[in-house]
Amino acid sequence: MALKELFDLSGRTALITGGSRGLGLQIAEALGEYGAAVVLTARKQHELDEARAHLEALGVTAHVYANDLGQFDTIDPLIERIHAEVGPIDILVNNAGATWGAPTAEHPFDAWTKVMNVNVNGMFLLTQAVLKRCMLPAGKGRIVNVASVAGLQGNDPRMSPTLAYNTSKGAVVNFTRALAAEMADKGITVNAICPGYFPTKMTKGTLAYGEQQILEHTPMHRLGTDEDLKGVALLLASDASAYMTGQNIAVDGGSSSV
């Protein structure tokens, strides 16, 4: 097989949660450029419509479905609908996420629950539905979880404490390892990307007051760009990573290495 064929996603369908903007949309651009039909889910229909128009202008086939992962009873019907209208899902990118910043002693429990419901519980239920409906019957699949360097370490004391987010992303890291081991003999790989700080809507508040501290702690002394996740996302979604599973790859300018 020619090397370029290992990265070819033609004929495959990729579901990307939280795909209407930020890192999810960047990943959709990458997978779509290499031939995948992309299916985006997010809570806001107008943002999904804008993302679809953006992708179609790039020549990418895109489908959009408004959905809130925190509403658990909508998840099975969503996967059934995508399966019926678009086809089986070959690639799942669990990207949707929520965060909350507060000192632990003052952290509202409802905020803790919201973060866990989206980042862990909703991800589990969606993955389970895709496995049952699409990947296990096909005997193949690629699952790419978007964790975070926050799941690999604690916070710099100068930054806002985000215990719920760090805990949830730590769960994603080990979810990736455990599911990878379970699926290894079933033709399904499970890996995770652990981004550092990228300018997105979610990180806007943190960067507003903490960007200098972040840059000081990052050996490359810069934030992530719109292009920095695309290569690893394509690798993990394609046949080029056929012998990789259970890995959590930091894309963080070296911040987790110091």
Description:
The chain is of the alpha/beta class and 258 residues long. It has one domain (3-248): Rossmann fold (3-Layer(aba) Sandwich), CATH 3.40.50. It is built from eight helices and seven strands. It has helices at 3-6, 22-33, 45-57, 75-85, 109-138, 163-183, 204-217, 230-237; strands at 13-17, 37-42, 62-66, 91-94, 141-146, 188-195, 248-251. It has a seven-stranded parallel β-sheet with strand order 3-2-1-4-5-6-7, sandwiched between helices. Strand 1, helix 2 and strand 2 (37-42) form a beta-alpha-beta unit. Helix 2 (22-33) crosses helix 8, helix 4 packs parallel to helix 5 (109-138) and helix 5 (109-138) runs parallel beside helix 6 (163-183). The chain starts with a helix and ends in a 7-residue tail after the last strand. The relative contact order is 0.15. The model has no long low-confidence stretch (mean pLDDT 96). This is SDR family oxidoreductase. It comes from Deinococcus rufus. It holds the Pfam family adh_short. Keywords: NADP, Oxidoreductase. Residues 12-196 form the Ketoreductase domain.
Name the poorly predicted regions. Answer: none
- The gyration radius over C-alpha positions equals 17 Å
CATH topology-level name: Rossmann fold
In percent terms, what proportion of residues is strand?
5-15%
So, the CATH homologous superfamily? NAD(P)-binding Rossmann-like Domain
Strand order of the largest sheet: 3-2-1-4-5-6-7
- Give the overall average pLDDT: 96
What is the annotated CATH architecture?
3-Layer(aba) Sandwich
Task: Please state the structural category.
Answer: alpha/beta
Amount of helix: 40-55%
Our count of helices gives 8
Q: Supply the number of structural domains.
A: 1
Pfam families: adh_short
Keywords: NADP, Oxidoreductase
Family: Belongs to the short-chain dehydrogenases/reductases (SDR) family.
Organism: Deinococcus rufus
